[in-house]
Amino acid sequence: MRFFSFFTRASRAFHSSPTYSKLLVISTLSSGGLLAYADSQSDASSPIEECPKKRVLVLGTGWAGTSFLKDLDASKYDVQVVSPQNYFSFTPLLPSVTCGTVEARSIVEPVRNIVKKRKGEVKFWEAECTKIDAANKKVFCRSLVDNNLVGNREFALEYDYLVIAMGAQVNTFNTPGVKENCHFLKEVQDAQKIRKSVIDCFEMAVIPSLSDEERRRNLHFVIVGGGPTGVEFAAELHDFFKEDLVYLYPTVKDLVKISVIQSGDHILNAFDERISSFAEQKFQRDGIDVHTGCRVISVSDKEIKMKVKSSGEVCSIPHGLIVWSTGIMTRPVVKDFMEQIGQGSRRILTTDEWLRVKGTQNVYAIGDCATIDQRKIMKDIAAIFEAADKDNSGTLTVTEFQDVIDDILIRYPQVEIYLRSKHLRDVKDLLKDSQGHEDEVDIEGFKSALSHADTQMKNLPATAQVAAQQGAYLSRCFNRREQCTENPEGPRRFKSSGRYQFLPFRYKHLGQFAPLGGEQAAAELPGDWVSMGRSTQWLWYSVYASKQVSWRTRYLVVSDWTRKFVFGRDSSGI
Predict the structure, then answer these.
(1) Its Enzyme Commission number (predicted)?
(2) Domain coordinates of the chain in residue numbers?
(3) Which residues of the chain have pLDDT under 50?
């Protein structure tokens, strides 16, 4: 008891002392053991201040923005998100929403559900970005809530790092009448409007006072654009009619017509030609008219005018509904930002290989709103030769070339693509002479060996797959920023010393699908594999189910597919 009384008095005495650290003298117990007491505390007059976190502002919650947020370690930054929609939508299934194969709510996940699972706090505001002030690192926003709630709708946010992931808007090519008379298929709301309009066309067609000519016009569905979205919508609409609507509107079943207008020579021209041919044959069997080599010149509320490129002939087609799916263009707010940073003459916002916007320091752009300007190897060919020629002999040996091969392949991915196109197994094969012998080359020979590599440079397609990979890559860079500042992981800088901080972005193509209706699909798979038919459709089901952003949406989508097989599609006009 004496020991504990002593311990208590000593503890009080030491806690009242202003010193930084105190140590109680070791006391020997009767049992031979030792007891030590130590206490440490900071002086209240000298608080330790933490450095404020860098502010990361993300504009957009599409594929690129959501992918970035999902993988970002938000505990390292002050993360803020602005988007006009408070949800992420699985856009590859929008054509399925237009015909009731999948319900709209089954393919959307609230943004707040996504960010609440992240490590650290993420602040979200449902608003649109109206202007980016690059000089002052500030973004101006406005709420889109259109009711009588009180409060100022406009606000401004400052940033240290800005991530632009705003996507793009539909490109009408300034064709007269498109905005007023066509449906687009870019957002969930677009798909819902199309679904209601399709049902309205059928309901109007069965009104007894209409003539057969008026019924035919109301039931003529025109799709402008033969890309993946247009083709998939045409296939979905055909299935909707053949499997469901034909039994609900039997009196007009022979009056329905679906047409696809494509300016190119083939539909799905971005796919392998075997898939393009298969799709055209499938549509021909299904009775879907495909007009290739035709350009739309105007659209009215009753007809669409198009010009046949081969003959110059102009013809008109009556329509009941038009879906315009011909490409994308830059949003006005991004275009204004481009003017500020010296990119006003470009069509689309341009970034470097690290997704940093050219002409800025801490602004990044990912997804459909930007394109990567891959540096040409011929611009740096002299610096590469000089770096490899260590003995300054004026020629390169195979051994010297091998020392820089890895950095070349990372910094200039077009070289690897060029090697594959020439069926060369190794970069050093470029230095072989006509007899196949490895020899030393001078600067001119080195230029000649790599002169055609830049011809393999291509812009990445504006797809969900590209956007998702860019978002995941950029979040990795943000997570590793401090680590890579001390130990850069990127390739060698040939025009200066050191290495780049990060590895450049490298897109990995995982394949692409084209559902063609009738439980058939076509797919391009890695390794130049092409698959077509019913088995490919089931592969499509499995891949798209696995790619959902949550188990909730995964369950809902699979449930909708099951419901369609059991009960058919819902034809109510809501």
Answers:
(1) 1.6.5.9
(2) 51-171+328-374+457-508, 183-326, 394-452
(3) 1-46
d(CA 470, CA 353): 11
Distances (CA, A) of 183 to 321, 515, 516: 8, 21, 21
The two tokens of residue 260 are 């696809």
Cα distance between residue 128 and residue 421, in whole Å: 45
HSE of 505, CA atoms in CB hemisphere, 13 A: 30
Q: Position 265: which residue type?
A: D
The shares of helix, strand and coil residues in the chain, as percent rounded to the nearest 5, are 40, 25, 35
Q: How far apart are CA 235 and CA 516, in angstroms?
A: 5
Distances in Å between the Cα of 86 and the Cα atoms of 83, 123, 143, 263 are 7, 12, 12, 36
131 φ, ψ to 5°? -165, 140
Could you give the CA distance from residue 26 to residue 572 in angstroms, rounded to a whole number? 84
Please give the structure tokens belonging to residue 341.
């940073």
Q: Looking at the domain covering 183-326, what would its CATH class be?
A: alpha beta
Contact call for residues 425 and 416 (beta carbons, < 8 A): no
CATH number for domain 51-171+328-374+457-508, candidates 3.30.470.30, 3.50.50.100, 3.30.70.360, 3.50.50.60: 3.50.50.100
Q: Which residue in 345, 389, 351 sits closest to 371, CA to CA? A: 351
Model confidence pLDDT, tens digit, residues 216-240: 999 999 999 999 999 999 999 999 9
Dihedral sign (CA 335, 337, 339, 344): negative
Distance, CA of 159 to CA of 80 (rounded, Å): 9
Which SS3 state, helix, strand or coil, does residue 61 take?
coil
Global pTM? 0.88
For residue range 514-561, list pLDDT tens digits in order.
999 999 999 999 888 999 999 999 999 999 999 999 999 999 999 999
Helices (H), 166-297: 178-181, 188-205, 212-218, 228-240, 246-248, 273-286
- Please, how many CA atoms are within 13 Å of residue 35, restricted to the half-sphere of its CB? 10
Burial 432-468 (b: 16+ CB within 10 A, else e): beeeeeeeebeeebbeebbeebbebbeebebbbbbbb
Q: What is the pLDDT of residues 286-322, one digit of tens each?
A: 999 999 999 999 999 999 999 999 999 999 999 999 9
